[in-house]
Design a protein that fits this description.
alpha/beta; Rossmann fold; 2 domains; 13 strands; 32% helix; binds iron/sulfur cluster
């Protein structure tokens, strides 16, 4: 089956222009295929600089890969016809971290809901358009009478974000890229917005790529998880297994950083120092996590590790699991497919 959206061996390098020779590899040889059916929720987790925002922008066609390709229904985004691009724009929607930036402060919030209806000719009449808007607002827990007619600054951050979820619902895309959608709303509203996103998936059959630095919300909402570290996949698989029993030392660090309500457990943000950090040289091909890894071994500074399939439902890029069979980056899809079975 041809995937709805596919990243095939994508690498994105920034810099190296006329005025600077410095380059940054934001994403390296990354592959992921999102099928239209069954609707899935895949979390992409990593700290700042992990490449997750670059991945979101690649998926939306906002930047082009330096190497590799992003394909919509098998066609390279760079060569879509205007009709295909229009279909792509409808099928793949985004919900951003800061909804305020999406709004025009001079327009009432109605505008962000009415525009896609007009653009994609979703309604046959004004009455039908109004009914669609009201239905979508109610579906995300907003009262139309308290929402419509207001300016963006008159709504709370959580309400503005839910209006964006309602907008996505109106368009009925096949896939939503949700880029840190709850990082700017307070904790009490997070669950409501995550619930609305889950509803889009379960009731309306929309797949989600949930991009976040926040492991707990990824755990709450997704079935699959991809942990990125400095542009490469550290670990991938079933979210339950990855969070409950992380294999990669970086995932272990992320899980260990989650503050727990148990007063006997202390918060620990950093692991002990790497035993081989002193042997690392600039530009040396090595595991990217070596400098922070408490388990680093001499082999870790000789070549970057491939992904090792530690079990049917996950893979980790770490020499600690070198006895397991290695897989290529484009076989991540097989691991994710297994999580649903
Ligand atoms: Fe640590 Fe080595 Fe595994 Fe990298 S490959 S995460 S340095 S043990």
């Amino acid at each position: 089956m041809i995937p709805l959206l596919e990243v095939r061996g994508a690498t994105k390098v920034f810099g190296g222009g006329l005025f600077t020779r410095r380059t940054t590899v934001a994403l390296e040889d990354f592959s992921l295929a999102i099928q239209a059916e069954p609707p899935s929720i895949t979390a992409v987790v990593g700290e700042s600089g992990s490449g997750k925002t670059t991945l979101a922008r690649l998926l939306l066609g906002l930047v082009t890969p330096t190497d590799g390709a992003v394909l919509y229904k098998g066609e390279d985004l760079r060569t879509l016809s205007s009709g295909e691009r229009r279909a792509f724009r409808r099928d793949v929607q985004v919900i951003f971290q800061d909804p305020y930036e999406v709004y025009n402060p001079f327009y009432r919030v109605d505008h962000v809901l009415e525009t896609p209806i007009a653009k994609f000719r979703l309604a046959g009449s004004k009455q039908e358009a109004e009914a669609m808007v009201e239905r979508a607002l109610r579906a995300v827990g907003l009262r139309p009478e308290e929402t419509l007619g207001r300016f963006p600054h008159q709504l709370s951050g959580g309400q503005r974000q839910r209006v964006m979820v309602a907008r996505a619902l109106l368009i009925r895309p096949r896939l939503i890229i949700a880029d840190e959608p709850v990082s700017m709303v307070d904790a009490s509203l997070r669950a409501t917005i995550l619930g609305s996103l889950r509803q889009l998936n379960q009731e309306f059959g929309i797949s989600l790529i949930y991009i976040t630095h926040d492991l707990p919300t990824a755990y709450q909402i997704s079935r699959d998880i991809i942990v990125l570290y400095r542009g490469s996949v550290a670990e991938v698989g079933d979210v339950e297994r990855v969070v409950q029993d992380p294999k990669h030392p970086y995932t272990q660090l992320l899980v260990g950083s989650i503050p727990l309500p148990d007063p006997d457990r202390t918060w620990h943000g950093e692991a002990p120092p790497s035993p081989v950090a002193g042997t690392l040289r600039d530009g040396q091909p090595a595991c990217k996590f070596t400098a922070r890894c408490p388990h680093a071994m001499p082999m870790c500074v000789e070549a970057p590790p491939p992904l090792f399939r530690t079990d049917r439902h996950r893979a980790a890029s770490c020499y600690l699991y070198r006895d397991a069979p290695s897989i290529k980056p484009d076989q991540i899809g097989e691991v994710l497919a297994a999580t649903g079975s």
